[in-house]
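Q: Entry one of two.
A:
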Amino acid sequence: MPIFIVLSKLTDAGFETLKSKPERVKEVNKKLEKMSVKMLEQYTVFGEYDFVNIVEARII
């Protein structure tokens, strides 16, 4: 499967959820796997984006 880099931002509500429930990241990754997206690596970053995700995904 092809490998992609995904840049993502949290909303204010998303940030609050992550702060109160850090395991939410793993829950989201499981939902992505059901859509044929496998999280290979995930990094928290500073600046315009909050996360850099390296994923393997099937293109439909």
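Q: Entry two of two.
A:
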Amino acid sequence: MDRISIIDLKKGEQAVIVSHHGGRVFERRMSSLGLRPNAVIKKISSQLFRGPVTVQVGNSQVALGHGMARRIYVERIGNE
């Protein structure tokens, strides 16, 4: 399976978080939002031209800026 960023997921696709690429503060922030390695997420929506990306993790929805979402790498789940 290929690792892609959350940005590359299509609306409604599910994926497992593989890794983050950022400093300690970024890692801590993502962990506090539930976006940890091995967490299953579902992409809810994204905006055109580098707008926010909304994902569901557990029972929560989290909106991420484009720059943050691009540094979180996932592997798709499902019809591969």
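A: Comment on entry two: The chain has one domain: 4-77. The CA atoms of residues 7 and 70 lie 6 Å apart.
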